[in-house]
UniProtKB/TrEMBL annotation:
<dbReference type="GO" id="GO:0003677">
    <property type="term" value="F:DNA binding"/>
</dbReference>
<dbReference type="Pfam" id="PF00072">
    <property type="entry name" value="Response_reg"/>
</dbReference>
<dbReference type="Pfam" id="PF04397">
    <property type="entry name" value="LytTR"/>
</dbReference>
<keyword id="KW-0597">Phosphoprotein</keyword>
<dbReference type="GO" id="GO:0000156">
    <property type="term" value="F:phosphorelay response regulator activity"/>
</dbReference>
<dbReference type="InterPro" id="IPR011006">
    <property type="entry name" value="CheY-like_superfamily"/>
</dbReference>
<protein>
    <submittedName>
        <fullName>Two component transcriptional regulator, LytTR family</fullName>
    </submittedName>
</protein>
<dbReference type="InterPro" id="IPR001789">
    <property type="entry name" value="Sig_transdc_resp-reg_receiver"/>
</dbReference>
<dbReference type="InterPro" id="IPR046947">
    <property type="entry name" value="LytR-like"/>
</dbReference>
<dbReference type="InterPro" id="IPR007492">
    <property type="entry name" value="LytTR_DNA-bd_dom"/>
</dbReference>
<feature type="modified residue" description="4-aspartylphosphate">
    <location>
        <position position="55"/>
    </location>
</feature>
<feature type="domain" description="HTH LytTR-type">
    <location>
        <begin position="144"/>
        <end position="248"/>
    </location>
</feature>
<feature type="domain" description="Response regulatory">
    <location>
        <begin position="3"/>
        <end position="116"/>
    </location>
</feature>
Amino acid sequence: MIRTIIIDDEPYASELLASLLKKYCPETEIIQICNSAEAGLTAIRGMKPDLVFLDIEMPHMNGFDLLEKLTPVSFDFIFTTSYDQYAIKAIRISALDYLLKPVDPNELKTAVEKYITRKSRLLPQQLDILLAQLQHPRTLSNRIALPTMEGLQMIAINNILFCTSSSNYTILTLKDNQKLTISRTLKEIAEMLEEHPFLRVHHSSLVNLNEIKKYIRGEGGSLLMSDGSLIDVSRSKKDQLLKQLSGK
C-alpha cells in the first residue's frame, strides 16, 4: 500500500480527494488528512509517508514553503491547485506532477499510476529548479527537467538544437549529437520553452532560433541547423519565422 497524506486547508476539498482516492486508487492508504500546512509538516515528519497530495494555496505557509522546510525531501508529492499560470509553469519546468482542482478522477488515476510505474524518484535538482523559478519568476531558468525513457534528465536549455514530434512523445536533438525521447508532447515542450528563443516552425518541429545557420526559400522554406539538419517550415509559420530572424 502507498502510505498517503493529504494536505489542503479546505476540508471539503481534502475529503473529496480522499473519497476519490478510496474509490479510484485502492492502492493508496490515507494515513492522515491535514487542513493546514503546519499540521502537514508535523504529520510528514512523524509519519514518513510515501506520497503527499499537497495544496499550493494555503494561508500562513503555502505548499512551496512547506517543501523548503522539508528539504531534502524523502517522499513523492503531487500538487493540487486551482489554475495559477506562474506556479504551473514552474512545476512543468521541474517535471513535477500536479492536478487541477476540481480533481478529475481519470487524471487522479493517471497521476497515481505514474507514481507507481516511473523508474526514477524525485531528484534534488527538480526541487531546486522549482524553487528558483518561483523565487525569481522573471529570471529564465537555464535548465529543464524532462522525463526520458530511462528516467528524469536535467538538460541545459541552450544545448537543445531542435525538437520533433513523435506521437505523444518528443525527440530532442542536442548539440553533442545526442537524441533523447521525452515523455511529453511537442505542445507541452513548446509551452515549457515559450520564454526562450524557440519557435514552432511546423506542427512537428520546434527549433532553437540561435542554432539556425540558414533559411532556405521555398513554399514554406526550410532551415539549415548548426548540426547540418534540415527542418521544414510550414507556410503558416513562415512570416512569423522571418520576423523573428530579422528581429522585428
